[in-house]
Every structure is written in C-alpha cells, then in structure tokens.
Design a protein that fits this description.
The chain has 203 residues and is of the alpha/beta class. It contains nine helices and five strands, in the order βαβααααββαααβα. Helix 2 crosses helix 5 (77-100). The longest helix is centred in the C-terminal third of the chain and has 25 residues, at 178-202. Residues 197-203 have low confidence and may be disordered.
Length: 203
C-alpha cells in the first residue's frame, strides 16, 4: 500500500484532485471531513472547544459553529495555535486508524496543514497542489462567501505554497481548469499504481 499525502494552500484544489483520484480507484480520506465530525454534534472536540471559547461557538445543533470559530481562529495567531494543538492530534489519530485498515494499493489523505503540523515524514509520496493567489482569493470569495480581506488573511495564516511545493515529492500546477486537473490526476494515479505494484514485486 502506498501512503500518499495531498496538501497545498487553502483553495488550491486539493479536494477536487483527491476526488479525481478516488474516481480512478484510490481510497481517500480528507482531514477537513474528519474535523467536521470532531466538531459536529457529539464530536470529540466539542467539549474542549466549548471550554476554550464558551457557548458562543456552539451552534443550534450542539456542534461547533464553524463560522464563529473561524472568525476567532483567523483573527489571532495564538488562538489558531491553541485550536490546532487540540485538533491536530485528534485528526492524526483518526487518519492513522484509517490507514491501518485493509485497503487498496493507493490510499491518500488530504491534509492541508501537513507541514505546519510537522507530519511530512511518514509518507511514501507527498503531493502539493499549487495555484495563483488571485485564483485562490476568487475561489474563497465566490465559493465560500468570504471578503477579499478575509481570504487574504486565511491564505497568509498558512505556510507559503512555494515552500510547501519545495518540500513535496510531486507538485501539481492547478492553474488551468478541472479537465486539466483530472488529466493530472490520471497521470499521478498511473505512476502511483506502477510504484505500488513494483514494490509488491520486490517483496
């Protein structure tokens, strides 16, 4: 089994790329989806987050109001560090349990903050999605309803994508359209499966 990490800056196309890989036969888990469960009604992270910030971040369903929490997190570096220190180990535990289950030859985890969390050394392949800052701002404002200032703040809160790219095994340039990204996914999947079966043959 190939352990693959998919990373990149916010709004770089990680989830879309991972979806194309899944359509080709890879098994995929997304750290953001894990966080949604942890912060959802009855989620393991809810009590600790409520202790940190009070009932103001609790939504009507009993889970975390992600918009309210996001406003706090992206306005203060110390607050963001506190929340990450709580969530990262929880997310990592869930993903590691997932990898321990029997699975197919290529299994990929989408981990936006892979390098920020210091989790980059346990993978066979690290794939980084890169795109221009203006395109990312456009996706955040149109797709997520953020203002340009909010979008810039969220981009600035992460490691520069050039640094992430330099530290990755593969870099996917997502500056075109979805069709081009799908072709990139096909090529990557072909390379990953070839490597996986070569590894089996070596055994």
């Amino acid at each position: 089994m190939k352990r693959v990490a998919i990373t990149g800056g916010i709004a770089s196309g990680k989830s879309l790329f991972a979806g194309f890989l899944a359509g080709l036969g890879a098994e995929v888990i997304d750290a953001d989806d894990v966080v949604h469960v942890l912060e959802g009604p009855g989620g393991a992270a809810v009590p600790a987050l409520k202790d940190m910030f009070g009932a103001k971040i609790i939504g009507p369903d009993g889970g975390i109001d992600r918009k309210a929490l996001g406003t706090l997190v992206f306005a203060d570096d110390e607050v963001r560090a506190m929340v990450n220190a709580l969530l990262h180990p929880m997310v990592r535990e869930v993903i590691e349990r997932w990898f321990k289950r029997p699975g197919c030859a290529v299994r990929a985890a989408v981990i936006p903050l892979l390098f920020e969390a210091g989790w980059q050394d346990e993978w066979d392949v690290v794939i980084c999605l890169v795109t221009g800052e203006e395109a990312r701002i456009r996706r955040l404002t149109r797709g997520r309803g953020l203002t340009r200032e909010e979008a810039r703040r969220r981009i600035a809160a992460q490691m520069p994508e050039a640094e992430k790219a330099a530290r990755s095994t593969m870099v996917i340039n997502n500056k075109s359209d979805a069709a081009a990204l799908a072709k990139s996914a096909e090529e990557v999947y072909r390379r990953l499966t070839e490597r996986a079966y070569e590894h089996r043959a070596d055994k």
